[in-house]
Amino acid sequence: MPPHKGLVHPKEYDWRDSNVELINSSIDHKIKYQSATTEPAWNNGIIGIEPGLFVWRIEDFEVVPWPKEKYGQFHEGDSYIILHTEKEGKNKMIHDIFFYLGSHTTQDEAGAAAYKTVELDEYLHGTATQYRELQNNTSDDFLALFPKIKILRGGVASGFTHVAEEENVHVDMLLRIFKHPSLAASRDAIMVHEVEPTWQSLDENDVFVLDRGDKIFVWQGQNCAPMEKLKAAQVVNDLTLAKHVEVEVLSQSETRSKVVVDYLGGRDVDVFDQKFVCERPAARREEGRGGMQEARKAKKLFKLSDKDGELSFTAVSEGENVNKGDFDGNDVFLLDSTRAIWVWEGKGASRAEKASWLKVAQAYVRHVSEDSSMSIGKVVEGNESQAFWAAVGA
Asked: Could you tell me if 126 and 168 lie in one domain?
């Protein structure tokens, strides 16, 4: 039995101290590929052959297919691998691999997800674009894969995955529905995030759905957006498909909205004097409801090379000077686009350079970047994604 089986990890893990950065440091490509050919998750006659979206969850160090009806649902205590394959032309397949780390996932699960992501890339002959995604700062490319995102509490290690309802034991669930700032122009940029079922979780800018078991309440904050109300209606519809319960929609400005606050432990709260504000669980640090942004420095390009006998990390260009011609196929480059970290791997890069990409990227995020939760993506020369070239400005 794995050492973390059945344990609950309530605190948020600091990924800046993670040993995930050691992944892919010394394993030969041929050995990885041979290992990949024995992984049932990849060898189903579809992966790498047919286009589509595929999701797996790490369970006891195993790669387990995630049910298609749950695509877009993620438990904050788990790690996932997502593969998106598109066909380009007659014969070429474009692959994007994401390993997604919930904010309370264990270090072992995160390490397994990172290792298996490398293995899947080997199975696809090293042509995939790889991304590391953190729950509280997912990239636009990741969000675009799903028509809706729902973040739920618990996870496979904790055993708290709402199965209690199947045993006739109800667990109150409070869902926060809000517009994600990174895709402000998209109708699908709505997040559904499970939060602590307390009145302190309420925010007047968003909509909340309280599933009490015998009844469902929709609490609409006084400043919520129409799209958030619409998404709440869709969430309620999903919840009531399996059970027939009463649904009541309440606006914060209504006197009766006190019913929800009372149920969530706020009986002593004056709803007309209390300002309901709670930090969003997945909002990016530089963006907020009022459009305030922190000043970000210009994009920067660095080179990782062992040309002189030892690995060196040096600045190449900055700002508008960064261009496609800066990339040399004999080395590995790191691009800080100010919104994400990109690693470009030249075909002629040495084994040591290729093996160090994730370690270097995470070290950069830890010591240099203004945002320690920035997403990290990796592309290989000749198989670059459009998102990468857009970040370069080419």
From this structure: no
Closest CA to 363 of 288, 313, 315, 316: 313
The CATH number given to whatever domain includes residue 125 is 3.40.20.10
Q: Is 276 part of a structural domain of the chain?
A: no
Q: What's the domain count of the chain?
A: 3
**Per-residue pLDDT, 293:** 40
The residue-averaged pLDDT of 168-182 equals: 78
Range(s) of the domain holding residue 244: 162-263
Q: Kindly report, residue by residue over 315-367, the tens digit of the pLDDT.
A: 999 988 899 999 999 999 999 988 889 999 998 888 777 777 778 888 888 77
**Do the beta carbons of residue 139 and residue 375 sit within 8 Å?**
yes
* Alpha carbon separation from 345 to 90, 92, 130, 281, 313 (Å, rounded): 26, 20, 11, 33, 14
* Beta carbons of 80 and 56 less than 8 angstroms apart: yes
Q: What is the CA radius of gyration of the chain?
A: 22
- pLDDT above 70 coverage of the chain, percent: 80
Selected residue with higher pLDDT from 23 and 88? 88
- Fill in the amino acid letter for 302: F
CA-wise closest residue to 144 among 341, 337, 375 = 375
Q: CA dihedral in degrees (232, 235, 239, 240; nearest 10)?
A: 70
222 and 327, same structural domain? no
Residue 241 sits in the same domain as residue 308: no
Q: Does the residue 209 lie in any domain?
A: yes
User: 83 φ, ψ to 5°?
Assistant: -115, 130
Q: For residue 183, which of 347, 339, 51, 68 has the smallest C-alpha distance? A: 339
In sequence order, which ranges of the chain are alpha helices (DSSP H)? 29-36, 107-123, 140-143, 226-240, 258-263, 351-355, 357-367, 386-392
Query: pLDDT tens digits for 63-87?
Result: 999 999 999 999 999 999 999 999 8
Q: Comparing C-alpha atoms, which of 152, 164, 179, 180 is closest to residue 76?
A: 152
Query: Does the residue 275 lie in any domain?
Result: no
